[in-house]
Amino acid sequence: MHSVMIIFSIETSCDESAVAVMHDGREVLSSELFSQADMHAMYGGVVPEIASRNHAAVIGRLSELALKNAGISKSDIDAVAVTFAPGLIGALLVGVNYAKGLALALDVPLIPVHHIRGHIAANYIAFPDLEPPFLCLIVSGGNSLITDVRGYTDIKIIGRSRDDAAGECFDKAARVLGLGYPGGPVLDKLAQDNLAQGGDDSCFELPHPVIEGFPYDMSFSGLKTAVVNIVHNAEQKGKVLDAASLAASFSRTVSEILVPRVMAAAVEFGHDKIVIAGGVAANSRIRADFEKAAEENGCKLFIPPLGLCGDNAAMIGCQGYYEYRAGVRAGMDLDAYATMDVDEDWIGLR
């Protein structure tokens, strides 16, 4: 292994086209992002075909920009890392095929990276001293998981959502409230503005599902349905809905589903370090509640800055570094997978 390693990384799992250049895993030399959010906003969510086409249109230019801003040439690249699972299959394939072509042309190793492992690794960039083991909650548009991170490439799922992901629930609640897409940031601001003006985050009682026998598993579909029913009932009765208080109550409920489970899991699995990752980690109510709970329980809490919560390629390059050190490689037959657990043993990739 090189004493100094430059990894070129690519992330195209959903609607963000991202390319980064990483030095020895944790140092970001450049990180470029092309967001398609505006293109999907009119549809109220991500349209896979549009996402794939836009990835294909911008990935080449984005790569050139990343190299230029990192101050390196292609010949300086030691390995190429790419998200290969999970995500929208067409979108993933754009990144995987571009990465394969680049790795083949440069004759360097190709490193497949699981998207969720990348979200966990975003914290390694934000916190240079952070090392496993720790407990990690990953909450994003497509995933809600509580994981036992035993090592950089040794991750076990101990709790998960049985249906909708927390981020998906935020987007659907925002859509029915007429807040547009992506809904999470807008709903969060509405809730915070409401509380700042003396509003009430408890005037709507929303469900907190419990899955018997599985204390760390979660469910968000009932919460989403409850919000939809409240909005529709108000519309049918011609009542003016207090959308800001509903947004605040919704944020509080999601936090009440997540925080106690994570704190209890930390005790059971013997962790005093708690890491939060994924787009929903940007939610101010969830961040604040975790900060309070961690302080009360004597735990160290790590939440990445907002720029590293969402999808980006720097986190993929960071995790790619640790996968490389663990001996993970892929050949030119690497495929993309729409679904794959973060702790699944990837046959043929070790």
Can you walk me through this structure?
The structure is a single chain. The protein has 350 residues and is α/β, with parallel strands linked by helices. The chain folds into two domains: 6-121 and 309-325, Nucleotidyltransferase, domain 5, CATH 3.30.420.40; 132-307, Nucleotidyltransferase, domain 5 (2-Layer Sandwich), CATH 3.30.420.40. 44% of the residues lie in helices and 18% in strands. It contains eleven helices and ten strands. A five-stranded mixed sheet has the order 3-2-1-4-5, sandwiched between helices. The longest helix is centred in the C-terminal third of the chain and has 26 residues, at 243-268. The two termini are 16 Å apart.
* Strand order, largest beta sheet: 3-2-1-4-5
Proportion of strand residues: 15-25%
Assign the CATH superfamily of the largest domain. ATPase, nucleotide binding domain
Low-confidence regions: none
* CATH classification class of the largest domain: Alpha Beta
Termini, distance in Å? 16 Å
Roughly how much helix do the residues carry, as a percent range? 40-55%
Tally of contiguous helical segments = 11
DSSP, total strands:
10
CATH architecture level-2 label of the largest domain: 2-Layer Sandwich
Helix and strand run: EEEHHEHEHEEEHHHHEHEHH
Structural Rg: 20 Å
Dominant shape: globular
Whole-number mean pLDDT: 92
**Structural class assignment:** alpha/beta
Number of domains: 2
What about the largest sheet? Answer: 5 strands, mixed
CATH topology of the largest domain: Nucleotidyltransferase, domain 5
